[in-house]
Q: What sequence folds into this?
């Protein structure tokens, strides 16, 4: 399954969060009530911003619709994103808000153990603001969305995408935000949740210990009219499903520096593959490769991402 664009230079419209990622990793076990020695890093982040940078580094014309605060960190984020090749002309700078922040405490394996999102600035993405930019939807080959977008704004985005026959790809972002997508599942072309986010989408009211594996959840999402569902399973790889194909791919065994951004990189590489008439079975392999490159670096986006690097990683 592919979505080859008739436009030789397709435009991808990416909508959602731009943020600073603050990530702390202890050198020893944490003790409640006191600090522990470790490392703390600040990197450029935000699900939509990371997606836009990955897509731009793969050579796609990418426009970011997002918001930052009128503060020094926001300006650094904006400049770095533009320098990566993303069109940032549509990013709002709000004097009333802080730039978004993702604060994570990683365990010694680079896995986020606890995390907090401060994304109040996303209130600036109102339905009216989006509607005034409907020309961008008319000209886009694809819309990519993260679930930080407010629910009413999300309705407008899906409505415009449907009006202009533009496929929508979605990162559910977190377990708490994923349920925002439930009313829109039938309008989603590509959905890339992790296992916990998938559970929040297919059985949000079920007890947390409900047993349902990735294969079942992927097929349930397809049964609810998602075109392609890819459920990421960290070190266990991924399970993907669409109406005529399904399968499991293992992860590439690599040393983990930081898992932040791996799922977004995977989704970006799959999108790139589908837009370039690469079969879904190979597109998800490119996604596995992008995730493997990302977890080996301290940044949330692999800075040297390219198609050559994706294929090189697959054959190492």
A:
């Amino acid at each position: 399954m592919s979505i080859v664009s008739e436009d030789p230079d397709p435009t991808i419209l990416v909508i959602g969060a731009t943020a600073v990622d603050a990530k702390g990793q202890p050198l020893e076990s944490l003790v409640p009530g006191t600090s522990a020695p470790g490392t703390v890093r600040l990197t450029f982040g935000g699900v939509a911003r990371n997606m836009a940078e990955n897509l731009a580094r793969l050579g796609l014309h990418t426009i970011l619709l997002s918001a930052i605060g009128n503060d020094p960190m926001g300006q650094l984020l904006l400049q770095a994103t533009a320098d990566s090749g993303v069109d940032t002309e549509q990013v709002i700078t709000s004097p009333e808000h802080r730039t978004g922040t993702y604060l994570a405490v990683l365990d010694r394996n680079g896995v986020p153990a606890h995390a907090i999102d401060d994304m109040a600035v996303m209130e600036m993405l109102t339905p009216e603001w989006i509607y005034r930019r409907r020309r961008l939807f008319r000209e886009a080959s694809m819309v990519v969305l993260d679930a930080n977008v407010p629910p009413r704004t999300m309705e407008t985005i899906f409505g415009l995408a449907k009006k202009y026959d533009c496929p929508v790809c979605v990162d559910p972002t977190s377990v708490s935000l994923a349920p925002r997508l439930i009313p829109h599942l039938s309008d989603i072309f590509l959905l890339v949740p992790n296992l916990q986010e998938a559970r929040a989408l297919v059985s949000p009211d079920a007890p947390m210990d409900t047993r349902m594996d990735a294969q079942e959840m992927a097929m349930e999402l397809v049964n609810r009219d998602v075109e392609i569902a890819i459920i990421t399973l960290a070190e266990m790889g991924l399970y993907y499903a669409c109406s005529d194909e399904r399968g499991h791919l293992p992860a590439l065994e690599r040393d983990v520096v930081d898992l932040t951004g791996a799922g977004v990189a995977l989704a970006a590489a799959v999108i790139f593959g589908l837009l370039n008439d690469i079969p879904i079975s190979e597109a998800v392999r490119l996604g596995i490769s992008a995730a493997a490159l990302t977890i080996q670096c301290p940044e949330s986006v692999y800075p040297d991402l390219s198609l050559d690097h994706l294929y090189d990683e697959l054959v190492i």
Observations:
- The longest strand covers residues 19-26.
- The chain has a mean pLDDT of 92.
